Amino acid sequence: MRMVDVIHNKRNGQALTNEEIEFFVKGYTKGDIPDYQASALMMAIYFQGMNPRETAVLTKAMVDSGETIDLSGIQGHKVDKHSTGGVGDKITFIVGPLVASAGVPVAKMSGRGLGHTGGTLDKLEAIDGLQIEMSKEKFINNVNKHKLAVAGQTGNLAPADKKLYALRDVTATVEAIPLIAGSIMSKKLASGADSIVLDVKTGSGAFMKTLEDSEALAKEMVAIGNNLGRKTVAIISDMNQPLGFEVGNANEIKEAVDILQGAKVDDLRELSLEIASHMTVLAGAFSDYDEARITLEANLDNGQAFEAFRQFIIAQGGDVSMIDDKTKLPQAKFHVDVTADEEGFVAEIDAESIGTAAMYLGAGRATKEDEINHAVGITLKKKIGDTVQKGDVLVTLHADSESPENSIKKVKQAYRFSSEHVDRPTLIHKVIR
Ligand code: URA
């Protein structure tokens, strides 16, 4: 088989055969197929698309290009969740213990953040001593014992995707739905869970800006998961503003703990319950969504979910006193209010700009080498639909400098006001099965 013929076939709009796709993924991973031919194929796929069979075969070939995690040592039906990324997304810290509190095992592999969205591991490291590197045995033992463990991704999951994603990034071919779906799902499938709940974000702060694109991506990912033997559900949730009120590492842990202690911050509690309910139903712990939801709401209110989080922190070596007394979490030196220059209703809060403002404070990384500052972050005081008078506080910046000008400017750019009443955005747009 010749790579030039594979490119030619896709360029002309033909569906590739299974053999052609496997030939490409194997050859590219080994280094036999050069970047220029892989780039040409990515561009052809960008324009011509892939059918569901092709996407599933591509995903499977990327899974098979590296290690897969064997979670068979964990008792019970293992569920995983994945978010396509958003600002203020601390859902894992709520959903993990919440699902664990219903007796369902969660074995979570997570990553670090780059750019305007923070990573799960970075946020967890706001808790002193918490270890995210551990042996496979310890990971499995922790899940068996506490129903929850979170570890850093091992280096060799879906190496074909790693190579291809880096190539797509510099050849303007990231935004092809079959390629995004295959990329995300290859890593999820290699991580070994039996069922997967996907939180596909939509809106200005999301990878997918329109509901139509988000739905297309969600459908592709659900089809791949189900085709490859994992029960998969996708929830399309809103990212037209940051999730909850806190952005930054310690800030987000604090807000997650508030929810685990029964706080009723509406969007955060609601989305966590939605995701956790689907996860526990897929795992067979409840017969239907309504039954799951009643128990899970109770577990947020009666302290069981919080206790599951405490046990997870202790098991991974973290200082649990920092969540028993949240004032012990890292604290920034200065708290700077950013106020409104006009009155009206909050119409937009560009989540990406808020994320960038937090990154300027030091909460995220601009380059891989940057050190994270766990103490800094942003507290939103006004969200979409709120009324604002001139001089009202929009956000408080928690900073290590007295006057974080770049972040102030970025936050002001993020807010847009309307003179007319604005409805709060719908949080959960659709559930795709
Ligand atoms: N995230 C991924 O892991 N892959 C993509 O292609 C896009 C987002």
Automatic annotation (TrEMBL):
This is Pyrimidine-nucleoside phosphorylase. GO terms for cellular component: cytosol. Its cofactor is K(+). InterPro entries: Glycosyl_Trfase_fam3, Glycosyl_Trfase_fam3_N_dom, Glycosyl_Trfase_fam3_N_dom_sf, Nuc_phospho_transferase, PYNP-like_C_sf, PYNP_C, Pyrmidine_PPas_bac/euk, Pyrmidine_PPase_CS. It comes from Domibacillus iocasae. It comes from the Bacteria. Pfam families: Glycos_trans_3N, Glycos_transf_3, PYNP_C. SUPFAM superfamilies: Nucleoside phosphorylase/phosphoribosyltransferase catalytic domain, Nucleoside phosphorylase/phosphoribosyltransferase N-terminal domain, Pyrimidine nucleoside phosphorylase C-terminal domain.
